[in-house]
Design goal:
With 346 residues, the protein is α+β, with helices and mostly antiparallel strands. Helix content is 16%, strand content 33%. The protein contains 6 helices and 16 strands. Strands 5, 6, 7, 8, 9, 10, 11, 12, 13, 14, 15 and 16 form a 12-stranded mixed sheet that branches. The two termini are 38 Å apart.
Protein backbone atom coordinates (compact mmCIF):
# COMPACT_ATOMS: atom_id res chain seq x y z
CA UNK A 1 0.00 0.00 0.00
CA UNK A 2 3.01 2.31 -0.27
CA UNK A 3 2.97 2.34 -4.06
CA UNK A 4 1.79 5.93 -4.47
CA UNK A 5 4.39 7.25 -2.02
CA UNK A 6 7.14 5.36 -3.83
CA UNK A 7 6.03 6.74 -7.19
CA UNK A 8 5.91 10.28 -5.82
CA UNK A 9 9.43 9.88 -4.45
CA UNK A 10 11.10 8.15 -7.38
CA UNK A 11 9.02 8.98 -10.47
CA UNK A 12 6.92 12.08 -9.74
CA UNK A 13 6.57 12.96 -13.45
CA UNK A 14 5.91 9.40 -14.59
CA UNK A 15 2.95 8.10 -16.52
CA UNK A 16 1.96 5.59 -13.83
CA UNK A 17 1.47 8.19 -11.09
CA UNK A 18 -0.44 10.48 -13.45
CA UNK A 19 -2.82 7.68 -14.41
CA UNK A 20 -3.46 6.63 -10.82
CA UNK A 21 -4.33 10.21 -9.84
CA UNK A 22 -6.68 10.78 -12.77
CA UNK A 23 -10.38 9.92 -12.57
CA UNK A 24 -11.21 7.24 -15.19
CA UNK A 25 -14.89 8.18 -15.02
CA UNK A 26 -14.28 11.58 -16.67
CA UNK A 27 -12.66 12.52 -19.97
CA UNK A 28 -10.79 15.49 -18.48
CA UNK A 29 -7.02 15.12 -18.66
CA UNK A 30 -7.00 11.99 -20.81
CA UNK A 31 -5.50 12.09 -24.30
CA UNK A 32 -8.01 11.34 -27.05
CA UNK A 33 -6.90 10.39 -30.57
CA UNK A 34 -9.22 11.12 -33.51
CA UNK A 35 -8.15 9.15 -36.61
CA UNK A 36 -8.91 10.59 -40.06
CA UNK A 37 -12.38 9.64 -41.27
CA UNK A 38 -11.04 7.71 -44.27
CA UNK A 39 -9.33 5.18 -42.01
CA UNK A 40 -12.67 3.79 -40.84
CA UNK A 41 -13.50 2.61 -44.37
CA UNK A 42 -10.29 0.64 -44.81
CA UNK A 43 -10.22 -3.15 -44.36
CA UNK A 44 -10.31 -4.16 -40.69
CA UNK A 45 -10.01 -7.51 -38.95
CA UNK A 46 -11.15 -7.02 -35.36
CA UNK A 47 -10.49 -9.78 -32.81
CA UNK A 48 -11.90 -9.68 -29.29
CA UNK A 49 -12.61 -12.09 -26.46
CA UNK A 50 -15.40 -12.53 -23.93
CA UNK A 51 -12.71 -12.45 -21.21
CA UNK A 52 -10.72 -9.61 -22.81
CA UNK A 53 -10.62 -6.24 -20.99
CA UNK A 54 -10.26 -4.54 -24.40
CA UNK A 55 -13.49 -5.96 -25.83
CA UNK A 56 -15.33 -2.64 -25.42
CA UNK A 57 -12.65 -0.96 -27.56
CA UNK A 58 -12.93 -3.64 -30.24
CA UNK A 59 -16.70 -3.14 -30.39
CA UNK A 60 -16.23 0.63 -30.57
CA UNK A 61 -13.92 0.21 -33.58
CA UNK A 62 -16.50 -2.09 -35.22
CA UNK A 63 -19.29 0.43 -34.66
CA UNK A 64 -17.26 3.38 -35.95
CA UNK A 65 -16.15 1.49 -39.06
CA UNK A 66 -19.71 0.42 -39.88
CA UNK A 67 -21.02 3.96 -39.34
CA UNK A 68 -18.41 5.28 -41.81
CA UNK A 69 -19.39 2.76 -44.49
CA UNK A 70 -16.63 0.24 -43.82
CA UNK A 71 -17.00 -3.54 -43.82
CA UNK A 72 -15.02 -4.74 -40.79
CA UNK A 73 -14.60 -8.45 -40.07
CA UNK A 74 -15.31 -9.29 -36.41
CA UNK A 75 -14.41 -12.35 -34.38
CA UNK A 76 -15.12 -12.71 -30.65
CA UNK A 77 -14.02 -15.93 -28.98
CA UNK A 78 -14.10 -17.48 -25.53
CA UNK A 79 -10.60 -16.31 -24.64
CA UNK A 80 -8.68 -13.57 -22.86
CA UNK A 81 -6.55 -10.85 -24.44
CA UNK A 82 -4.41 -12.20 -27.33
CA UNK A 83 -5.01 -15.79 -26.17
CA UNK A 84 -7.03 -16.63 -29.26
CA UNK A 85 -7.41 -19.99 -30.95
CA UNK A 86 -9.79 -21.67 -33.40
CA UNK A 87 -7.97 -20.74 -36.61
CA UNK A 88 -7.53 -17.03 -35.90
CA UNK A 89 -3.87 -17.12 -36.99
CA UNK A 90 -4.88 -18.58 -40.37
CA UNK A 91 -7.62 -15.97 -40.65
CA UNK A 92 -5.06 -13.22 -40.04
CA UNK A 93 -2.71 -14.60 -42.70
CA UNK A 94 -5.53 -14.82 -45.23
CA UNK A 95 -6.57 -11.25 -44.38
CA UNK A 96 -3.02 -9.95 -44.83
CA UNK A 97 -2.62 -11.87 -48.10
CA UNK A 98 -5.84 -10.40 -49.38
CA UNK A 99 -5.20 -6.78 -48.48
CA UNK A 100 -1.44 -6.29 -48.07
CA UNK A 101 0.55 -8.85 -50.07
CA UNK A 102 1.78 -7.34 -53.35
CA UNK A 103 2.10 -9.31 -56.58
CA UNK A 104 5.23 -9.14 -58.69
CA UNK A 105 4.65 -8.31 -62.33
CA UNK A 106 1.77 -6.36 -63.85
CA UNK A 107 0.29 -9.65 -65.06
CA UNK A 108 0.55 -11.14 -61.57
CA UNK A 109 -1.04 -8.05 -60.07
CA UNK A 110 -3.95 -8.40 -62.49
CA UNK A 111 -4.35 -12.05 -61.65
CA UNK A 112 -4.18 -11.25 -57.93
CA UNK A 113 -6.91 -8.62 -58.27
CA UNK A 114 -9.05 -11.09 -60.14
CA UNK A 115 -8.60 -13.75 -57.46
CA UNK A 116 -9.43 -11.28 -54.73
CA UNK A 117 -12.66 -10.29 -56.48
CA UNK A 118 -13.74 -13.91 -56.87
CA UNK A 119 -12.56 -15.16 -53.46
CA UNK A 120 -15.33 -15.79 -50.96
CA UNK A 121 -15.18 -13.15 -48.28
CA UNK A 122 -15.13 -14.45 -44.69
CA UNK A 123 -18.38 -14.02 -42.76
CA UNK A 124 -18.59 -10.47 -41.43
CA UNK A 125 -19.32 -11.46 -37.81
CA UNK A 126 -18.71 -14.79 -36.08
CA UNK A 127 -18.94 -15.15 -32.29
CA UNK A 128 -18.06 -18.19 -30.19
CA UNK A 129 -20.52 -19.59 -27.67
CA UNK A 130 -18.45 -19.69 -24.50
CA UNK A 131 -20.16 -22.84 -23.20
CA UNK A 132 -20.67 -24.98 -26.31
CA UNK A 133 -17.62 -23.70 -28.23
CA UNK A 134 -19.71 -23.36 -31.41
CA UNK A 135 -19.23 -20.34 -33.68
CA UNK A 136 -22.41 -18.46 -34.51
CA UNK A 137 -23.29 -15.68 -36.94
CA UNK A 138 -24.43 -12.93 -34.60
CA UNK A 139 -24.33 -9.15 -34.91
CA UNK A 140 -23.38 -6.93 -31.93
CA UNK A 141 -26.51 -4.95 -32.79
CA UNK A 142 -28.63 -7.95 -31.77
CA UNK A 143 -29.45 -9.33 -28.31
CA UNK A 144 -31.37 -12.25 -26.86
CA UNK A 145 -33.41 -9.72 -24.85
CA UNK A 146 -34.31 -11.63 -21.67
CA UNK A 147 -35.35 -9.69 -18.58
CA UNK A 148 -35.69 -10.62 -14.89
CA UNK A 149 -36.78 -9.02 -11.65
CA UNK A 150 -35.08 -9.57 -8.28
CA UNK A 151 -36.84 -10.75 -5.12
CA UNK A 152 -35.80 -11.57 -1.57
CA UNK A 153 -37.25 -11.63 1.93
CA UNK A 154 -34.01 -10.02 3.13
CA UNK A 155 -31.79 -13.11 3.42
CA UNK A 156 -30.17 -13.16 -0.04
CA UNK A 157 -26.79 -12.32 1.53
CA UNK A 158 -27.16 -14.90 4.30
CA UNK A 159 -28.47 -17.81 2.26
CA UNK A 160 -27.18 -18.03 -1.34
CA UNK A 161 -30.33 -19.91 -2.38
CA UNK A 162 -32.90 -17.49 -0.86
CA UNK A 163 -32.94 -14.68 -3.43
CA UNK A 164 -34.66 -15.17 -6.75
CA UNK A 165 -34.35 -14.06 -10.36
CA UNK A 166 -37.97 -13.99 -11.45
CA UNK A 167 -40.02 -13.31 -14.53
CA UNK A 168 -41.89 -10.08 -13.91
CA UNK A 169 -41.69 -7.81 -10.89
CA UNK A 170 -39.76 -8.71 -7.75
CA UNK A 171 -39.44 -6.95 -4.43
CA UNK A 172 -37.85 -6.81 -1.01
CA UNK A 173 -34.81 -5.21 0.60
CA UNK A 174 -31.31 -6.59 1.07
CA UNK A 175 -28.48 -5.10 3.15
CA UNK A 176 -24.78 -5.72 2.42
CA UNK A 177 -21.79 -4.77 4.57
CA UNK A 178 -18.32 -4.28 3.13
CA UNK A 179 -15.45 -4.97 5.56
CA UNK A 180 -12.26 -3.45 4.09
CA UNK A 181 -10.10 -5.92 6.04
CA UNK A 182 -11.64 -8.86 4.19
CA UNK A 183 -12.81 -7.43 0.85
CA UNK A 184 -14.65 -9.71 -1.53
CA UNK A 185 -12.12 -11.16 -4.00
CA UNK A 186 -12.43 -10.74 -7.74
CA UNK A 187 -11.97 -13.94 -9.72
CA UNK A 188 -11.72 -14.77 -13.42
CA UNK A 189 -13.78 -12.67 -15.79
CA UNK A 190 -12.09 -9.95 -17.86
CA UNK A 191 -10.49 -7.70 -15.24
CA UNK A 192 -7.78 -9.62 -13.42
CA UNK A 193 -4.57 -11.57 -13.91
CA UNK A 194 -6.57 -14.84 -13.93
CA UNK A 195 -9.06 -14.07 -16.75
CA UNK A 196 -11.57 -16.58 -18.00
CA UNK A 197 -14.28 -18.86 -16.61
CA UNK A 198 -14.23 -19.45 -12.86
CA UNK A 199 -15.95 -21.50 -10.18
CA UNK A 200 -17.42 -19.19 -7.52
CA UNK A 201 -19.60 -21.25 -5.16
CA UNK A 202 -17.30 -20.30 -2.25
CA UNK A 203 -17.59 -16.59 -3.04
CA UNK A 204 -21.38 -16.75 -3.24
CA UNK A 205 -21.44 -18.39 0.20
CA UNK A 206 -19.98 -15.24 1.81
CA UNK A 207 -22.30 -13.00 3.82
CA UNK A 208 -21.20 -9.89 1.87
CA UNK A 209 -22.59 -11.28 -1.41
CA UNK A 210 -26.28 -11.20 -2.31
CA UNK A 211 -27.35 -13.99 -4.69
CA UNK A 212 -30.45 -14.12 -6.89
CA UNK A 213 -31.09 -17.43 -8.65
CA UNK A 214 -33.65 -18.42 -11.27
CA UNK A 215 -35.75 -21.55 -11.33
CA UNK A 216 -34.40 -24.51 -13.30
CA UNK A 217 -34.72 -23.80 -17.02
CA UNK A 218 -37.47 -25.84 -18.73
CA UNK A 219 -35.49 -25.67 -21.99
CA UNK A 220 -32.11 -24.53 -23.28
CA UNK A 221 -31.75 -20.76 -23.77
CA UNK A 222 -29.16 -18.56 -25.44
CA UNK A 223 -27.87 -15.52 -23.56
CA UNK A 224 -26.44 -13.02 -26.03
CA UNK A 225 -25.61 -9.36 -25.52
CA UNK A 226 -24.63 -7.14 -22.61
CA UNK A 227 -26.25 -7.79 -19.22
CA UNK A 228 -27.37 -4.58 -17.54
CA UNK A 229 -28.61 -4.30 -13.96
CA UNK A 230 -30.71 -1.38 -12.82
CA UNK A 231 -31.26 -1.35 -9.05
CA UNK A 232 -31.98 1.26 -6.38
CA UNK A 233 -29.14 1.47 -3.86
CA UNK A 234 -27.87 3.76 -1.12
CA UNK A 235 -24.85 3.60 1.20
CA UNK A 236 -24.09 5.02 4.63
CA UNK A 237 -20.83 6.48 3.26
CA UNK A 238 -20.04 8.83 0.35
CA UNK A 239 -18.53 6.06 -1.74
CA UNK A 240 -19.28 2.44 -2.69
CA UNK A 241 -18.89 -0.08 -5.50
CA UNK A 242 -21.33 -2.58 -6.96
CA UNK A 243 -19.50 -5.67 -8.27
CA UNK A 244 -21.57 -8.19 -10.20
CA UNK A 245 -21.17 -11.71 -11.50
CA UNK A 246 -23.51 -13.68 -13.74
CA UNK A 247 -23.18 -17.44 -13.38
CA UNK A 248 -24.59 -20.74 -14.56
CA UNK A 249 -25.64 -23.24 -11.90
CA UNK A 250 -25.43 -26.72 -13.35
CA UNK A 251 -27.54 -29.71 -12.35
CA UNK A 252 -24.42 -31.11 -10.62
CA UNK A 253 -24.19 -28.05 -8.33
CA UNK A 254 -21.33 -26.16 -9.97
CA UNK A 255 -21.45 -22.35 -10.03
CA UNK A 256 -19.73 -21.40 -13.30
CA UNK A 257 -19.09 -17.67 -13.62
CA UNK A 258 -19.90 -16.36 -17.11
CA UNK A 259 -19.19 -12.62 -16.90
CA UNK A 260 -18.65 -9.79 -14.42
CA UNK A 261 -19.19 -6.04 -14.15
CA UNK A 262 -18.28 -3.18 -11.82
CA UNK A 263 -19.68 0.31 -11.21
CA UNK A 264 -18.13 2.88 -8.85
CA UNK A 265 -20.07 5.61 -7.07
CA UNK A 266 -18.45 8.57 -5.29
CA UNK A 267 -19.83 11.65 -3.54
CA UNK A 268 -22.71 12.59 -1.28
CA UNK A 269 -25.19 11.24 -3.84
CA UNK A 270 -24.13 7.76 -2.71
CA UNK A 271 -26.21 8.24 0.44
CA UNK A 272 -29.41 8.90 -1.54
CA UNK A 273 -31.58 5.94 -2.47
CA UNK A 274 -31.89 6.07 -6.24
CA UNK A 275 -31.52 3.77 -9.28
CA UNK A 276 -27.97 2.70 -10.16
CA UNK A 277 -26.90 1.08 -13.43
CA UNK A 278 -24.18 -1.54 -13.74
CA UNK A 279 -23.20 -2.84 -17.18
CA UNK A 280 -21.45 -6.20 -17.39
CA UNK A 281 -19.06 -7.73 -19.91
CA UNK A 282 -20.97 -8.97 -22.98
CA UNK A 283 -21.46 -12.70 -23.44
CA UNK A 284 -22.73 -15.43 -25.73
CA UNK A 285 -23.59 -18.56 -23.76
CA UNK A 286 -26.18 -21.29 -24.26
CA UNK A 287 -27.56 -22.69 -20.99
CA UNK A 288 -28.91 -26.23 -20.93
CA UNK A 289 -32.26 -27.52 -19.76
CA UNK A 290 -32.15 -27.82 -15.96
CA UNK A 291 -29.50 -25.10 -15.53
CA UNK A 292 -30.24 -22.08 -13.38
CA UNK A 293 -28.99 -18.52 -13.81
CA UNK A 294 -27.58 -16.57 -10.87
CA UNK A 295 -26.79 -12.89 -10.36
CA UNK A 296 -24.35 -12.18 -7.51
CA UNK A 297 -23.94 -8.68 -6.07
CA UNK A 298 -20.94 -7.74 -3.93
CA UNK A 299 -19.18 -4.55 -2.86
CA UNK A 300 -15.58 -5.30 -3.87
CA UNK A 301 -13.52 -7.28 -6.40
CA UNK A 302 -10.02 -7.07 -4.95
CA UNK A 303 -7.36 -7.16 -6.38
CA UNK A 304 -9.00 -6.81 -9.79
CA UNK A 305 -10.11 -3.29 -8.87
CA UNK A 306 -8.97 -0.93 -6.14
CA UNK A 307 -10.92 -1.12 -2.89
CA UNK A 308 -13.31 1.81 -2.44
CA UNK A 309 -12.31 3.70 0.74
CA UNK A 310 -15.89 4.86 1.36
CA UNK A 311 -14.74 8.45 1.93
CA UNK A 312 -15.64 9.78 -1.50
CA UNK A 313 -11.97 9.82 -2.53
CA UNK A 314 -10.85 8.09 -5.71
CA UNK A 315 -9.49 4.64 -4.76
CA UNK A 316 -6.19 3.49 -6.25
CA UNK A 317 -5.04 0.49 -4.21
CA UNK A 318 -5.71 -2.06 -1.53
CA UNK A 319 -7.37 -1.51 1.84
CA UNK A 320 -5.62 0.52 4.52
CA UNK A 321 -6.28 2.27 7.84
CA UNK A 322 -8.22 5.05 6.13
CA UNK A 323 -10.77 2.68 4.59
CA UNK A 324 -14.24 2.60 6.13
CA UNK A 325 -16.82 -0.08 6.57
CA UNK A 326 -19.63 0.49 4.08
CA UNK A 327 -23.25 -0.58 4.46
CA UNK A 328 -25.33 -0.64 1.27
CA UNK A 329 -29.10 -1.13 1.08
CA UNK A 330 -30.59 -2.58 -2.11
CA UNK A 331 -34.25 -1.92 -2.89
CA UNK A 332 -35.42 -4.74 -5.15
CA UNK A 333 -38.82 -3.32 -6.15
CA UNK A 334 -38.32 -2.13 -9.72
CA UNK A 335 -34.88 -3.74 -10.04
CA UNK A 336 -34.26 -5.25 -13.45
CA UNK A 337 -31.60 -7.42 -15.07
CA UNK A 338 -31.85 -7.35 -18.86
CA UNK A 339 -29.77 -8.54 -21.82
CA UNK A 340 -29.36 -5.67 -24.27
CA UNK A 341 -27.34 -5.28 -27.48
CA UNK A 342 -23.64 -4.84 -26.78
CA UNK A 343 -23.49 -2.05 -29.36
CA UNK A 344 -25.99 0.72 -29.90
CA UNK A 345 -28.08 0.31 -26.74
CA UNK A 346 -28.88 3.22 -24.43
Amino acid sequence: NHGLELLRSHDPQGMGLAWLQRDPATAEGWMVHQPPAAIWRRPMLLIGGWHDPHLAGVLDLWQRARAAGGEPVLRIGAWSHLNWRGGIDRLQLAFFDRHLKPAGSEEERGQSRGRRRTEERPPAELLEDQLSGQWRARSPLQASGQSWGLRSDGLAAVDASEGGLCQGAGGGTVALVHDPWRPLPGRGGHLGLDPGPAQRADLDARSDVACFTSEALPRAIELFGQPLLTIAAAADQPGFDLCLALSRLTTSGEVQQLCTGVARFLGEDCQVMRPRRVAMQPLLATLSKGDRLRLSIGLAAWPQIAVNPGSGALPCGGPGPEHREISVTLQLAGANLCIQPMVGAN
